[in-house]
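Below is a complete specimen:
___
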Amino acid sequence: MASPINAQSADQSIEISADEITRTVRTMTLDQFEGRAPGTAGEDRTIGYLIGRFEALGLEPGGVDGTWTQAVPLLHTVLGEPEKLSISMNGETTNLNAGKDIYVSTLQPKDRAVVGDAEMVFVGYGVTAPERGWDDFKGVDLKGKVAVFLVNDPDFAASSQEDVAGEFAGRAMTYYGRWTYKFEEASRRGAVAALIIHETEAAGYGWNVIESPQGENYGTVSADGQMTSLALQGWISGSAAESLFDDAGLDLAKLRVAARTKGFKPVALGAEFSAAYPVKQSIVKSQNVFGKITGKARPDETIIFGAHWDAYGEGPPDENGNIYRSGANDDALGMAGIMEIARKFKSMEQPDRTIVIAAWAAEERGLLGSEVYAQSPVYPLETTVANLALDVLQTGGKAKDVILVGKGQGTLEDDLAKFAGLQGRVVTEESLPERGLFFRADHFSLAKRGVPVLLMMGLAGASDLVEGGRKAGQKWIDDYTGNCYHAACDAWSPDWDLAGAMQDINVMFDIGNSLAYSKQWPEWKKGSEFKELRDGSADARR
């Protein structure tokens, strides 16, 4: 149910300040923080800075056991050169080119990653979606085998005449289309390896992006010692996949069409995959940081405002000699936003519900800080009212609209439209929903456990800027993503116009404020893959 406009007035509170936001961003991008990479001296300084700022804002420690933090132990792995990498079929063995034909990594804490003569099985899109009556596996045993997947959803490439059209949100990606889901599903079924067939359009990026980590990966460290069944996970190039299926006497193009039907069954490829890699592994110690304002009436009900403190650390020098990739926009600006939201709440009457300000670790390594939290939450997920996330805000100036990420997921999007409307703005849907941005920021770790979420992300679509319209909004995205995204030039600039970012921060505050003094609970909408999870914990909210 969408929450009503809050009767609790914020008129007497302080205003969110562009000067304060600028001060925070400029501080967090100083060289002394070394690009804020997890597990470095730069992290230690960042954590100290954040705790100091949270204290100065008047927040209470909101972490584990009355502290400010939560430990985020990370497994870091790097594959060496393969000792063996091949596919055998009909008595013939074909060696694969690492990087060109196949890209893999591992999230097992072992010194070697080995797959020995494992049977390869094509599983289509690899979707198990009971709410859609969809099961690509049909009971086929994958234990010890290599699962080969198509990327994206079953309806991504479907024509309007096919029965599947629109079943998985059309061109918009559902979680079933994300590579993370496919690897998780393969592991749940005991596969020893998982390979996704790369297609640039369906993946949303080229092969150059696939291979850029160069065999490196990060994962969470399970407290109970459990680990993925996958010795290797990754991608096989489109051309290598075509050759594999041709050699097996199979028509991959026809199988793509068959995989878009509910009657699809896995297909054994009659091939065996073998690989052996040396692995360098280590445990990296990182931390989430939390501050809170305890609710006076219902303190066990929490509203989380989140952003990630980490960036990309040290890299090769750019043309100006800068080596630190400090993420001014991604996501020091988001961090500055949630600090200003905290400062505004502290100037108001104590909220009925608890406000949590969450600074997530290791987002750039795969949403890992928020994933650790979701696995071991400090605040029960069943009574977490909402998670409101800021990750990359546009700095091109005031906008006539606000960009919605994840249309149709939850009632918080109705709140977004309502409060944006009070600013005189309208909602514009993200321009490339097939890229699945909804699943690529920290809020998603909580979403897939059923917590209602809303993401504010300036990269999701071209804003209709007051000065220059949508053309200017697209130019801002193109300039940022084409030049500075995850690069050293993602730095504070005196050319930033924070008026649009301020609009977005204020909208997120208004949504949280409307919930902070309310008894309303945001919900997932019918058709969302997360609705059933949330509905299952309804008793905890009664």
Observations:
- DSSP finds 14 helices and 21 strands in the chain.
- The mean pLDDT is 94.
- The longest helix spans residues 328-346.
- The domain at 22-73+286-531 is CATH 3.40.630.10 (Aminopeptidase).
